[in-house]
From TrEMBL:
It comes from the Bacteria. Keywords: Glycosyltransferase, Transferase. It comes from Gloeobacter kilaueensis (strain ATCC BAA-2537 / CCAP 1431/1 / ULC 316 / JS1). Transmembrane segments: none annotated. The keyword Phosphoprotein does not apply. Pfam families: Glycos_transf_2. GO terms for molecular function: glycosyltransferase activity. InterPro entries: Glyco_trans_2-like, Nucleotide-diphossugar_trans. Pathway: Cell wall biogenesis; cell wall polysaccharide biosynthesis. Residues 15-118 form the Glycosyltransferase 2-like domain. CDD domains: GT2_RfbF_like. This is Rhamnosyltransferase. Belongs to the glycosyltransferase 2 family.
Length: 299
């Protein structure tokens, strides 16, 4: 059992889940989340039927509110709706989730325990879980040192991230120019530039999906391909280039590491993914638009 103080802390967190044509699994994911969070906001980016029926069913759950956008305004803009909603209601934390992510037991308690034990809480902006990918059975750690239950990190993913509203106020929310993809990495770099800390909480695990992931093997080396759509390849490439331009001088090592990952991603598309030529075409266009500074929704 958690103490009264811990239960009160649970009330100080607002979860925002952005949806776009979710599958029926969304219902189970929200029910699991509701077991640990008392306030959940679903921001829907103009889903179609039957997805709208799933979302409508969730409105009957106490503590769940839905905001319906008339068009797909992008992930970042939808997250900012959640951010403003939490601000208006004086929440301390914003917890962000993708529609296909599943919370695990003890997740929020582990997050709050980690925050309580961290000695630089005044500079702490983001708490991240570790990520488990059911499709490939892989587990992602953003810091490879597993000797401690808490590890300082420099980047994480949007889904499962718990961020202080106060920090979001100072850094300016999510970058809506990105629309989708790399929103999380840009946000993390901005937090670092403002002097904030990010930590990974080993006791909090999130079951998460990355595209239509599959594992491949080359000799004794196993790696993952995500099979993202061509349009996602466009956004990923464009927003990476936009991030590189913005943070190369302040974070050259991180940018170099990400660039090497980007090159490896392109090689995996070439040798392992279907429709490679189309995806490479969209990737090239994204790189070009990133260089010339084009932002927003791709049309």
């Amino acid at each position: 059992m958690h103490s009264v103080k811990k239960r009160e802390e649970f009330q100080d967190i607002c979860a925002v889940v952005v949806t776009y044509n979710p599958e029926a699994s969304l219902i189970a994911n929200i029910r699991e989340l509701r077991k640990q969070i008392s306030s959940i906001l679903i921001v829907d980016n103009a889903s179609n039927n039957p997805a709208l029926a799933y979302i409508a069913d969730l409105e009957a759950i106490e503590g769940v509110k839905v905001i319906y956008n008339r068009r797909n305004i992008g992930l970042a803009a939808a997250l900012n709706i959640g951010y403003r909603y939490a601000c208006a209601r004086k929440y301390t934390w914003l917890l962000t989730f993708d529609q296909d992510s599943t919370i695990t037991p003890g997740y929020i308690a582990a997050m709050l325990d980690a925050y309580g034990s961290y000695d630089k809480r005044d500079r702490l902006a983001i708490l991240s879980p570790i990520y488990y990918f059911p499709a490939t059975q892989a587990v992602c750690y953003h810091n490879r040192d597993r000797s401690s239950p808490i590890a300082v990190i420099e980047r994480t993913m949007t889904s499962g991230m718990m961020i202080k509203i106060e920090a979001l106020d100072k850094i300016g929310g999510f970058d809506e120019d990105f629309f989708i993809d790399c929103i999380d990495h840009e946000l993390c770099l901005r937090c670092l530039d403002f002097g904030y800390k990010l930590i990974e909480v080993r006791g909090a695990k999130l079951a998460h999906s990355l595209g239509n992931s599959e594992q491949r093997k080359l000799l004794n080396w196993t790696f993952t391909i995500t099979n993202h759509t061509p349009s996602r390849r466009y956004y990923n490439a464009r927003n990476r280039l936009l991030t590189y331009k913005k943070y190369l001088m302040s974070h050259p090592v991180l940018i170099a590491k990400d660039l090497s990952n980007f090159v490896f991603q392109i090689l995996k598309i070439i040798f392992y993914e279907k429709d490679a030529l189309t995806k490479l075409s969209y990737t090239a266009k994204g790189c070009y638009h990133g260089i010339i500074g084009r932002t927003g929704e791709y049309k």
